[in-house]
Design a protein that fits this description.
309 residues, D-Maltodextrin-Binding Protein, domain 2, 3 domains, transcription regulation, LysR_HTH_N, transcription, DNA-binding
């Protein structure tokens, strides 16, 4: 492995070349030359320099993330753990968007209880980042809605459940006291930071005149979104399964007449990479937990953060 990767990661971790050199047991000039050689070969800067130290550039941050994974994979491969225990090591899971993380609550509990040698590394990102990470092998398995993976010949994906988004409001919302058709554009909508499904995006843009950025809240955290809905006339979005729980019905009301398209949820892996045993185990657990294509809700896990806010 190119030693310059370790040098760059050390500089990024310690924030100065001098501290990185000390940790690496090298001279400061040797580390400086190593980073300069690497940047020259890459054709872009990894770090912004200042009198206080160094900070990664945007491109440098992506490079360092990948370099760290390469170093970890190399250590795992050479350590012989995969022979003694095929489940040992890091399982990198991409969840796109991050609002789908709750889907993994029960499956990951099962996974680590059955295979305690697994070490989890969960990452999220936007649409572009998600596909880049998956195709490059920066994540071992990705969870997202089906349109994200469609048309990608280099990926293998399978459905394991479905989501049906519904609109909800606080129980004393003024819209519930009128028989007139609801004009959803009269109220702000609480959306995740990015709408991933194109059909849903077109529907929302049609309702709000294409001006989602100024008329809607963008909140990825579901418990926090619930608090905003409870405290205002905002309209939130919730999965049908969770909306049918007693916990949810006690606090909110479903807004009839407005529904977004049903979405199939899938796991995906890059075809060119050998699938890790831990990833295969997670696939099987996802299918078992959500096997009827209706998402299973661990109500205590999902409700607790909301109650603590």
């Amino acid at each position: 492995m190119d030693s310059r990767l370790a040098h760059a990661v050390a500089v990024g971790r310690h924030g100065t070349i001098s501290r990185a050199a000390e940790a690496l047991h090298l001279s400061q000039s040797a580390v400086t030359k190593s980073i300069a050689d690497l940047e020259r070969q890459l054709g872009y800067q990894l770090f912004n320099r200042s009198v206080r130290g160094v900070t990664p550039t945007d491109a440098g941050r992506l490079f360092l993330e990948r370099a760290q994974r390469i170093i970890a994979d190399t250590a795992e491969l050479l350590g012989g753990q995969s022979i003694a225990d095929p489940y040992a090591g890091v399982l990198r899971i991409g969840v796109f968007p991050g609002t789908l993380e709750w889907i993994l609550m029960q499956p990951l509990q099962w996974l680590v209880s059955r295979h305690p040698s697994v070490r989890l590394d969960l990452v999220t990102g936007n649409k572009v980042q998600s596909l880049r990470m998956l195709e490059r092998g920066d994540v071992d398995i990705a969870i997202s809605i089906e349109p994200v993976f469609e048309g990608r010949a280099q990926l293998h994906y399978e459905r394991f459940g479905s989501l049906e988004p519904l609109a909800f409001v606080r129980r004393d919302h003024p819209v519930l006291n009128t028989a007139a058709p609801v004009n959803i554009a009269e109220y702000p909508l609480v959306l995740p930071t990015e709408v991933w499904e194109e059909q849903a995006l077109r529907q929302l843009e049609s309702s709000y005149g294409g001006d989602l950025d100024t008329q809607c809240h963008k909140i990825a955290n579901f418990p926090l979104a619930c608090k905003v809905v409870e405290a205002s006339d905002a309209i939130g979005l919730v999965d049908k399964g969770f909306a049918e729980t007693a916990y949810f019905r006690q606090r909110f009301s479903i807004l009839a007449g407005f529904q977004l398209p049903k979405r199939e949820v899938c796991w995906a892996v890059p075809k060119q990479w050998t699938v890790k045993p831990a990833a295969k185990a997670l696939m099987a657990i996802l299918s078992k937990v959500h096997g009827k294509h209706e998402m299973v809700f661990d109500i205590e896990d999902r409700a607790a953060p909301h109650e603590r806010q």
